[in-house]
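Q: Hi! First time doing this. I have a protein sequence and I read that you can turn it into a structure. Is that right? Here it is:
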Amino acid sequence: MRAIAITNQKGGSGKTTSAVNIAAALGRSHRVLVIDFDPQANATAWLGIKDGGSGLLEALTDGRPLAELATPTETPGVEIVPASAWLRRAEKSLASEPGAETIFRRALLKLPRRWDVVLVDCSPWLGLLTISALTACSELLVPVEASTMATEGLAALTQTVDKVREGLNPALKTIGILPFRVDERRRVDCEVVESLRRHFGRQVLKSVIHESARLREAHSHAKAVEQYAPTSRAAKEFRSVAAELSRRN
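A: Yes, that's right. Below is the predicted 3D structure, encoded as structure tokens:
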């Protein structure tokens, strides 16, 4: 069972959009579990769950099994462990807990093998939840918006990942950097993508997610673009990302 953390230390980088829509694309041929590890619960809402409750907090603080929290969605092949604002209490509750960074990893290891892929949608800020996700997962996907500020966030994340590898999870590898919200009409977008490929080489996926009104519409309808507009460019691009990640296993 693959466990992939999806994060970037800059908000608005497309991590939740990536998590939801990659899950839907993978769900065509795999059993996928999304774990919403962000107290903002955007992935939870996007996949049609109105109230995530306190279950995920209980999994971290009281040992409640994650499998009990897996909730079906209307997206074929996809279940979710939902989040809510309750998750904000986790950092304070676990602050004095020895080995707090490894609690989520232990919970993840107890998951039954009924899923092929687990996607963890991380919080956009660096804290215990994000460090716990990086400690628990063996793979990392980093969506990067086509902007100079986003690439600066990637540099900060790279330093964090190096520290996690050194002290907590030497098996962690970056499975891909995903150029996101690319508008080919803007010269700066093309330059950012070229810069990413120049500096990070094969780590940058060949697949690119372009700016898309269909994605925004899909979000407003609480549907993955795979269900909302399956013939759209965005849906095809996310299927391309899913296929590329599968080949990189």
